[in-house]
Specification:
A hairpin with a 4-residue loop joins strand 6 and strand 7. The chain is 45% helix and 22% strand. It is globular and about 40 Å long. The chain has a single domain, classed as P-loop containing nucleotide triphosphate hydrolases (Rossmann fold). A 5-stranded parallel sheet has the order 1-5-4-2-3, with helices on both faces. A two-stranded antiparallel sheet has the order 6-7. The longest helix has 18 residues. Helix 1 crosses helix 2 and helix 5 runs parallel beside helix 6. The chain has 181 residues and is of the alpha/beta class.
Length: 181
């Protein structure tokens, strides 16, 4: 999917951490094999698990294409979820890739402490990111727990589902556009 179209922004909603790990590993490995740098916005508890597994699958040179960003720092660098600050952090993060015309993709693990975050703020930021994805032409997966995904679906967004295909021994992501037109 990402080889044909780079400007893809999808919402991946998960329920089980084991499946989440499989999906992020697959996305990173596929990206690196395609020659992309991968910006992984992840929490510092899960990242070591991902890094450890990838280090058994990829060479040292390939591992250098993976770039970790702590998701707490990314989303809450000024104490709360504030879209202009997140956008500024995002722009600083991708600037070297854009300026040097380096192909990249990103996976962002979105986490909130409660479901009480103002949905309109989250939607505002996701629309801003959607514009950046189209402008800069890179694939982005925003991963979040199913409860948050349900909120976004109920507000008019499309949801991504996962399916496990035993004969392929690999999960696949069914991707839909993040926002309905």
């Amino acid at each position: 999917m990402f080889e044909d179209q780079k400007n893809v922004h999808v919402l991946y909603s998960y329920t089980e951490m084991e499946n989440y790990i499989k999906q992020v590993l697959s996305y990173i490995q596929d990206g690196i094999m395609a020659g992309d740098h991968v910006i992984l916005v992840e929490n510092d508890r899960i990242y070591p698990l991902i890094h450890k597994e990838l280090s058994t699958r990829l060479t040292k040179d390939q591992m250098e294409l993976l770039h970790f960003v702590n998701n707490f720092d990314f989303y809450c660098s000024r104490g709360s979820y504030h879209p202009p600050v997140i956008e500024e952090y995002f722009n600083k993060t991708v600037q070297p890739y854009v300026e040097n015309k380096i192909s990249f993709r990103s996976w962002a693990h979105v986490e909130w402490a409660t479901l009480e975050e103002p949905l309109h703020i989250i939607e505002e930021f996701e629309r801003t990111v959607d514009k950046a994805v189209n402008l800069l032409s890179f694939p982005l997966i925003c991963a979040l727990l199913v409860s948050f995904g349900v909120l976004l679906v109920n507000s008019g967004h499309l949801l991504v589902s996962t399916h496990f295909t035993p004969h392929k021994k690999r999960s696949t992501i069914t991707a839909l556009p993040f926002f309905r037109n």
